[in-house]
């Protein structure tokens, strides 16, 4: 069913669209380059997952030939063994049983190794790709690390080592939102590997990446919430003087004629005015 599994084609399209959105909003920024790498990883992962879901026929034929030859060798050895009756003692019988058991154990171990060779090969490749995906997740986290929402409303003197933050509140909100979307796309790419296999280690590693991206996104959305709150409490400049005059009139200061003619702000804007005037 198309809506019960992740579609790698739709996932690639979404990541490429996100790459264009970042490039159009922030031309030449490092985050757009990281998203380009994420798009490339999505395309490569789609091909690798599709390849892993198909049987490796040359490897399976080789394993089948080796197993058949091994079984034929065991039958041949069994036919050349001479069974003598009446002359053997108890210790000879026990030694023969021990040798037969050891042979069966070694044969079973060899058969298990050969039959699981293809799965272990796919697991090694998938874990290598997931490790690369883990690295780019931390790269995305580094890009949002210095984006401090308190810088929008805080006035202070920067130091020579202070990070450059030439962003408005809207741009900062969009930048952080793009980082959160990239983390979500990275988690979905990891889910492609878990979707196409029953290997417990791959599924566990993919789930760990999903948890990491969820934790980082939670921190990012805390920053976005702070930015949105600062935008909400910041009133237009026309209300600052009027609001200051209205508040001063309550403490015994006569308002100016212009302020007296200025209509009162709305309820939410009045709260913002009191906040900005420092009389809260």
> Runs with pLDDT <50, length 5+?
236-280
Global geometry = elongated
Query: Secondary-structure element order, as H and E?
Result: HHHHHHHHHH
> Compute the gyration radius: what is it?
34 Å
Can you count the helices?
A: 10
Major pleated sheet: none
| Helical content band | over 70%
Percentage of residues in DSSP E strands: under 5%
Mean pLDDT: 78
Number of beta strands: 0
Question: How far apart, in Å, are the first and last alpha carbons?
Answer: 58 Å
Q: Structural class of the secondary elements? A: mainly alpha
Structural summary, described in words:
The protein is mainly α and 280 residues long. 76% of the residues lie in helices and 0% in strands. It contains 10 helices and no strands. The longest helix is centred in the last third of the chain and has 34 residues. The two termini are 58 Å apart.
Main features:
mainly alpha; single chain; disordered C terminus; 280 residues
Write the layout of secondary structure elements.
Elements: H1 8-25, H2 30-53, H3 57-80, H4 90-115, H5 117-145, H6 169-195, H7 200-233, H8 237-250, H9 257-261, H10 267-277
Helix pairs in contact: 1-2, 1-6, 2-5, 2-6, 3-4, 5-6, 5-7, 6-7, 8-10
Give a short summary of the structure.
With 280 residues, this protein is mainly alpha-helical. It has helices spanning 8-25, 30-53, 57-80, 90-115, 117-145, 169-195, 200-233, 237-250, 257-261, 267-277. It is built from ten helices and no strands.
């Amino acid at each position: 069913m198309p809506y019960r599994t992740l579609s790698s084609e739709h996932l690639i399209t979404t990541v490429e669209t996100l790459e264009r959105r970042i490039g159009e909003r922030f031309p030449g920024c490092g985050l757009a380059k990281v998203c380009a790498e994420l798009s490339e990883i999505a395309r490569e992962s789609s091909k690798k997952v599709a390849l892993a879901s198909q049987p490796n026929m040359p490897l399976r034929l080789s394993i089948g030939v080796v197993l058949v030859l091994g079984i034929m060798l065991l039958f041949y050895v069994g036919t050349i063994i001479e069974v003598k009756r009446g002359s053997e003692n108890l210790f000879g019988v026990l030694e023969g049983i021990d040798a037969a058991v050891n042979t069966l154990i070694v044969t079973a171990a060899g058969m298990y190794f050969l039959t699981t060779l293809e799965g272990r090969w796919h697991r090694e490749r998938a874990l290598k790709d997931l490790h690369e995906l883990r690295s780019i997740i931390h790269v995305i986290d580094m890009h949002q690390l210095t984006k401090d929402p308190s810088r929008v409303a805080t006035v202070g003197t920067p130091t020579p080592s202070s990070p450059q933050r030439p962003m408005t509140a809207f741009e900062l909100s969009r930048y952080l939102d793009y980082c959160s979307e990239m983390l979500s796309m990275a988690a979905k790419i990891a889910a492609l590997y878990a979707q196409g296999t029953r290997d417990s280690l791959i599924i566990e590693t993919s789930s760990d990446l999903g948890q990491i991206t969820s934790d980082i996104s939670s921190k990012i959305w805390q920053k976005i919430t702070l930015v949105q709150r600062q935008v909400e409490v910041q009133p237009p400049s026309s209300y600052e003087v009027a609001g200051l005059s209205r508040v001063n009139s309550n403490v015994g200061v006569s308002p100016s004629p212009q302020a007296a003619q200025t209509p009162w702000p709305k309820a939410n804007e009045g709260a913002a005015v009191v906040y900005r005037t420092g009389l809260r």
